[in-house]
Automatic annotation (TrEMBL):
The gene is STEAP3. It comes from Meleagris gallopavo. This is STEAP3 metalloreductase. Residues 338-480 form the Ferric oxidoreductase domain. Residues 108-195 form the Pyrroline-5-carboxylate reductase catalytic N-terminal domain. Pfam families: F420_oxidored, Ferric_reduct. It is found in: Endosome membrane.
Amino acid sequence: MMVKHSAMVGECCSTGTPQQLCSHRVAGDSLSTQQCCPSSRGPGVASGLCCWHFLILTAWLASWGRFATSLFWLKQYRRMPGGDMAKPLLGHRSTEGDPSVVPAAGRTIGVLGSGDFARSLAIRLVCSGFKVVVGSRNPKRKACLFPSAAEVTFQAEAVKKTDVIFVAVFREHYSTLCDLADVLAGKILVDVSNNTEINHHKESNAEYLASLFPACTVVKGFNVVSAWTLQSGARDGNKQVLICSNSQEAKRTVAEIAQIMGFTPVDMGCMSSACEIENIPLRLLPAWKIPILLALGLFLCFFTYNLVRQVIHPYIREQKNKFYKIPVEVVNTTLPCVAYVMLSLVYLPGVLAACSQLYYGTKYRRFPDWLDQWLQHRKQIGLLSFFCAALHAVYSLCLPMRRSHRYQLIETAVKQAMEKKMNIWVEEEVWRMEIYISVGIIALGLLSLLAITSLPSIANSLNWREFSFIQSTLGFIALVTSTLHTLTYGWSRAFDENQYKFYLPPTYTLTLLVPCTVILAKVAFSLPCIQHRLQRIRRGWEKGREGTL
Ligand SMILES: Cc1cc2nc3c(=O)[nH]c(=O)nc-3n(C[C@H](O)[C@H](O)[C@H](O)COP(=O)(O)OP(=O)(O)OC[C@H]3O[C@@H](n4cnc5c(N)ncnc54)[C@H](O)[C@@H]3O)c2cc1C
Ligand SMILES: NC(=O)C1=CN([C@@H]2O[C@H](COP(=O)(O)OP(=O)(O)OC[C@H]3O[C@@H](n4cnc5c(N)ncnc54)[C@H](OP(=O)(O)O)[C@@H]3O)[C@@H](O)[C@H]2O)C=CC1
Ligand code: HEM
Ligand SMILES: [Cu+2]
Ligand SMILES: [Fe+3]
């Protein structure tokens, strides 16, 4: 998944500066609705003290002569997994002024099991202000894995102390919990389990759990978030937790907990939805699947096209055997085309997003799903583009190394000697090649920079501005230089009749369409009138609601 800034559009509402977005935005944000201010995000996300605000806060502290203290806190903040994890930020929500109500966040929550999920859940719960009691078969050994604020004890002990228990145990082991049936009676059990394959069992895990513990109320939920998300993410406010249960009351309780933890609970109705909810994580496409299919599809199309032009055409028209071209030449015409088109597809969705925002005059409108998906896959598409471009560079360097190339050189030399031609230097051709090779190298250099900064460790060491400069600005410059590379390589060949094989134009002309559209659109967006409107929209202005800003 994208490391940060799946979308860097938007701005900090507190500083008002356009394009400034907290670097903690994780993949999955659509450009449309999220901002970094707690007040403007989803309900649960009010828990996030954003890094940007934190820096402002630090600066403020420093200005009061407490630099050392603030540095200390900054360090602490950095050290915490996921930045704001260790702060129970929502604990004081909603119950102010009513001492009789136990604040939801002060509640004790039980967790059965001490595995990956249990541990992440416990950490997140503690950070959200809950008291956590973990029930393990071997509490002594497992206690060290949990934050000190969480109590780790035997299963029965843990269950006694709370009314809401997350069952972070695999379905296969549910039956081993039957001894606890008496202590569990009347309590809420949250089933977080997943299956390994779709519809593996006849009944859903949650229904199975309910059948084992008829005296409990079972709620299905949280299976769609991974242990990793629990620890590090969920601050973007659109991570959804799907919940279902036959008890409205229990569902409401669990939904409230999810919300306080920074998730967006989604009511999926009664228990019969559990099966559907359990299948969702299995259905989700891994982030790479679509980009890889896209790359393969493009490769196949371009490969066929080049094969026809470079091999089939001479074979049919002139009975010439050019099959030796397939491994290197055809591939090296195909790879750069894939790289180039994929690179433009990285920047196209941003343009579409901006168009949508301009058209509807608001940023608070969700993008269609396909665009959301596309925005989220830009990193993978970009990295695949880089991969193809790198291969293309190596192939290109090896072109003159081939035996076929040597034969051709000698052949031409002999021919020219026989014709007594001495000066075969064509100034224009020389310049064309010098330029397109140089520009190509620059483009590849820029892409390498993008690829390097997408490594998590590097990305984490950059602030949002550096990251966005490299990804957005330098990436776009890479697209422009690639276009120059392609144009100087193609030169006037698009207008040369001999280049049209079976009426098919040279491949590079086909690849220019999308990149040039993207470049023109970006240029249009930088026109003062459009830019101004876009900036206002991204600062929260909405068409038809003048005066609200
Ligand atoms: C090798 C490689 C590696 C990559 N690695 C990553 C990665 O690790 N993580 C990742 O997220 N992406 C990665 N990408 C994808 C890509 O670089 C980023 O998604 C990049 O942010 C896209 O930039 P953008 O300008 O199109 O989009 P955005 O920055 O999201 O901008 C969207 C649109 O809004 C416009 N815009 C933004 N702000 C304003 C404003 N204030 N006024 C007017 N217009 C505005 C932009 O011009 C653009 O049209 C990678 C790409 C490549 C090629
Ligand atoms: N890992 C993830 O990202 C996600 C996991 N889930 C679900 O959470 C549940 C737990 O997953 P995960 O934490 O990864 O699994 P682990 O294998 O890491 O943990 C399972 C835990 O179950 C406890 N347990 C209780 N009874 C038994 C038993 N009889 N045999 C073996 N273990 C037992 C163990 O704790 P102890 O020894 O202390 O009793 C053990 O640590 C699963 O249902 C999974 O589908 C859901 C979404 C994401
Ligand atoms: C070190 C970097 C690079 C070198 C040395 C290089 C070299 C070349 C060469 C020699 C050709 C001509 C191939 C032929 O004769 O068939 C070419 C074509 C091309 N290159 Fe590059 N290139 C580089 C980087 C890139 C990058 C980064 C891109 C785009 C992402 C790119 C896109 C293209 C395209 C689209 C063509 C035209 C392919 C065709 O239609 O024949 N190149 N490059
Ligand atoms: Cu803000
Ligand atoms: Fe932030």
